[in-house]
Specification:
Length: about 160
């Protein structure tokens, strides 16, 4: 290890993780994901919210009302978990359920006025949490980091082209 690598640590000491591991993007992403997940989960819990609440409210705000199945696709929440999430949000008057006029067997979910206010509060909270997470990066680096992560995720989640 070079002196420059040791100097990268706040106290100038050698990293406790072998260099081979510190240069593997997959490991770094995994380690950062664990820390990010903990930070966001704990921060949202202080606001009596969960990541899934935010995902559903954000989906409803951006794309409008939808069925449980549509919300599951939009938010990435498994259909079997969606009912519980919607029950929690409905109990807090953050969403409204109404029978679908085209198919009375399903409900259409809509964000309520209270849900929009709550989403706005959660946006501010998440902005602060992301500022903590990305504190070592300047604004341009943060934008670039998010851009690069988005490119990687898009690449790995796009459906393959038909042959």
């Amino acid at each position: 290890m070079t002196g420059a690598e040791a100097a990268d640590l706040p106290d100038g000491s050698a990293p406790r993780t072998p260099h081979r591991l510190r240069r593997r993007a997959s490991r770094l992403l995994s380690q950062l994901t664990m820390r990010s997940d903990r930070l966001i989960t704990e921060g949202l819990a202080r606001a009596d919210a969960r990541k899934w609440h935010y995902a559903v409210l954000a989906s409803l705000q951006e794309y409008g009302p939808g069925s449980q199945a549509e919300l599951s696709k939009r938010s990435g929440i498994h259909r079997s978990d969606m009912v519980g999430v919607l029950n929690e949000l409905a109990e807090r008057d953050l969403v409204e359920r109404a029978p679908d006029p085209a198919d009375r067997r399903r409900n259409i979910i809509t964000i309520s006025a209270r849900g929009r206010r709550h989403l706005h509060h959660l946006d501010k909270l998440l902005d602060d949490l992301h500022d903590d997470l990305l504190a070592p990066l300047n604004p341009a680096e943060r934008d670039q980091f998010v851009h690069l992560l988005t490119r990687l995720l898009d690449h790995h989640t796009q459906a393959p082209e038909p042959a």
